[in-house]
Amino acid sequence: MVRKPLTISIEKEVLKKFKQYCEDEAINLSRKIEKYMKEELKKKKK
Q1: Residues 19, 29: contact at Cβ < 8 Å?
Q2: pLDDT for 28
Q3: Do the domain assignments include residue 3?
Q4: I need a labelling partner for 10 at 20 to 30 A (CA). Which of 17, 30, 32, 42 fits?
Q5: Domain-embedded: residue 2
């Protein structure tokens, strides 16, 4: 699957905490966000 870079703006504190969460859980930040996006798209189909 081809990956496309994305630039977004997120509140500084939210990003800081989420990055720490991903690091603590050994989760790839980009893949986690992608998963959220896919879940939202599935909801839309229902």
Answers
A1: yes
A2: 96
A3: no
A4: 42
A5: no
